[in-house]
Design goal:
alpha/beta, eight-stranded mixed beta sheet, 16 strands, about 40% helix, globular, binds flavin-adenine dinucleotide
């Protein structure tokens, strides 16, 4: 048997959440190991949209911004114009004060893994974690090695093994997974004079929506919906959507992946483990924005460890309290707004949404971009 690796913190998963936690903790002097089952650079199904709050957070965590990320090919596109549709009808269009930025996830995720490596984290790729013992801080890897650590950070995405180990009862885990949205996405070559605006489409599928985002050379078209709430095939609806927009259907180019859609955990730490990002269900339950929440939850978890050191109860309490205060509370409001929108949408063809865009378009924009909380949407 191989000698176990000893370290302070083992981070499972090197997406935006894991790379951020590893970068901040290694930069603060902890002995950090970052494990990912894939080789980097690796693809990740995502529309790659960054709102203002993500760009602002990257500045605060990594001290970098759009000019440098454009120069490195990490951000590939920016756009200010948007249009909102209900079915085939356009209900709103506008120009954003701050543009949406779009990233290439292969380069984006690789960029932050390299940042973690530069900060001093030891990065192990193509190594899957197969077993987790949160009580004793133990991991088993698929190469037969064992890892012993003080803390495990589960940043291993929607199918998180770390969350599975914390949930213990299969029923709770099944319920969590039942509330994942199904998504489907494809790229389509951008025709000459093709759309240069970000499009959001409601009313095509119950409890879901579709997007069409412009890119450098192609458009990203996708659809997400909660599976329990619809009796309509997402694949068929998506194909109809492509046909309606005069796009070729290339079934082999469509990809599907689950997306947390309102199943955020309010108790994200137990025994010696903490979960962050998608592993903790932290994506916006209306538009599915998860990159911001991946970085932000990892930042909160890392700060709790930096402040409380190896006193796990204090770390767990600080992470739970701060995550609930600055992330979960906002996600609850977005979920409330989403539920009102989708229930009203089914019966009233999204008249409420049209009204909001007519009366308070800048307030809606500020809530989506993160300048203003959703709880304050109705207050001037
Ligand atoms: C179709 C689609 C479109 C989206 N569009 C957007 C968007 O436009 N904007 C936005 O902000 N968000 C978007 N999201 C959400 C966003 O992609 C996620 O919220 C984000 O990637 C979460 O980051 P993460 O680091 O938590 O997890 P991930 O990025 O999923 O990373 C998890 C990592 O863990 C690794 N891993 C998993 N299991 C193991 C294991 N056992 N051992 C070792 N490693 C393991 C995986 O290989 C992976 O690298 C979209 C999602 C989907 C599905």
């Amino acid at each position: 048997m191989k000698k176990p690796v000893d370290c302070d913190i083992a981070v499972v998963g090197a997406g935006p959440a894991g790379a951020t936690a590893a970068c901040l903790l290694a930069g603060s002097g902890f002995d950090v190991r970052l494990f990912d089952k894939q080789a980097f650079p690796r693809p990740k199904l995502c529309a790659g949209l960054l709102t203002w709050k993500s760009v602002d957070l990257l500045k605060r965590i990594f001290n970098t911004g759009p000019p440098e990320l454009f120069a490195r090919g990490v951000i590939t596109h920016a756009c200010r114009d948007y249009r909102i549709h209900v079915g085939q009808r356009e209900i709103a269009r506008g120009r954003l004060d701050f543009p949406f930025h779009f990233v290439d996830r292969t380069r984006y995720d690789h960029h932050w893994v390299e940042a973690a490596r530069t900060a001093g984290a030891r990065v192990y790729t193509q190594v899957a974690v197969t077993h987790i013992d949160p009580m004793h801080g133990g991991l088993t890897l698929d190469n037969g090695s064992n890892v012993r650590c003080r803390y495990i950070i589960g940043a291993d995405g929607v199918w998180s093994k770390v969350r599975g180990a914390l949930h213990a009862q299969k029923q709770r885990e099944r319920r969590w997974r039942d509330h994942l949205a199904v998504t489907i996405e494809t790229h389509h070559p951008l025709p000459e004079n093709g759309p240069s605006f970000a499009g959001l489409h409601f009313g095509l599928i119950p409890w879901g929506y579709a997007w069409s985002f412009p890119g450098e050379r192609h458009q990203t078209i996708g659809m997400a919906a909660l599976p329990q709430k619809r009796n309509q095939s997402i694949k068929r609806t998506f194909d109809n959507f492509l046909v309606a927009h005069k796009m070729d259907m290339q079934p082999n180019m469509r990809r599907s992946y689950p997306l947390p859609y309102g199943n955020f955990l309010t108790t994200p730490a137990k025994q010696n483990a903490l979960v962050v990002g998608d592993a903790c269900g932290l994506a916006d339950p209306l538009l599915g924005e998860g990159i911001y929440y991946a970085h932000r939850s990892a930042q909160i978890a890392a700060q709790a460890i930096i402040d409380a050191g190896f006193h796990f109860e204090r770390v767990a309490a600080a992470y739970t309290r701060n995550l609930n205060r600055s992330v979960i509370r906002e996600l609850r409001w977005i979920k409330f707004f989403r539920d009102m929108l989708f229930i009203g949408g089914t019966h009233r063809r999204f008249r409420g949404l049209s009204l909001f865009f007519r009366l308070i378009p800048k307030r809606l924009e500020a809530a989506v971009q993160g300048h203003r909380p959703f709880s304050k949407l109705l207050f001037p």
